[in-house]
Design goal:
single chain; 159 residues; mainly beta; Lipocalin; 1 helix; globular
Length: 159
């Protein structure tokens, strides 16, 4: 149960994301916002779905203009994810991030690495993504590789 619970949490960070539901997104060749930032830059609320179980969870993602990435999830035993991203095409991106899951004694129980591909909608307010995640022991032994998808909505300053 502990392992399954944390595999779901690892998938949150991830957001992160591979082949795209391209038809679901409006097309636009603009790669940046009005300030010249890549379309992905900003903060997002995402729903992540783990395959094949269909388990869903919520997460927050922030893509910074310097190519760094941070994600948070719903559980205090999850370190949050830190990583990097780069643009690969018009509104298309790849990211990699790493997080840790802590055991009851506070030690690192698992390491999670997410590899994600995502696409931002033409209006810049949504993304879809697919990811693959490796769950490993602290010594690097791979326990499980999982896949999933994410959909996100941009967090806007509506004031």
């Amino acid at each position: 149960m502990f392992l399954k619970k944390h595999v779901i949490r690892l998938s949150i960070a991830t957001l992160l994301m591979m082949s795209f539901a391209g038809a679901a997104l409006a097309t636009d060749d603009s790669d940046s916002d009005s300030d010249g930032n890549a379309a992905i830059v900003g903060s997002w609320q995402a729903t992540t779905t783990l395959e094949p179980t269909g388990d869903e969870s919520l997460a927050l993602f922030t893509f910074n203009s310097d190519g760094t990435f941070v994600a948070t999830g719903p559980d205090a035993s999850f370190s949050g994810a830190h990583g990097a991203w780069k643009q690969t095409g018009a509104r298309r991106y790849r990211s990699v991030n790493i997080s840790f899951v802590y055991g009851p004694d506070g030690s690192i129980a698992f390491r999670i690495e997410n590899r994600t591909i995502l696409r931002v909608s033409g209006n810049g307010n949504r993304f879809v993504a697919e990811f693959e995640s490796d769950l490993t022991l602290p010594d690097g032994t791979v326990l499980q590789t999982t896949a999933g998808s994410s959909e996100g909505q941009r967090i806007k300053a509506n004031f």
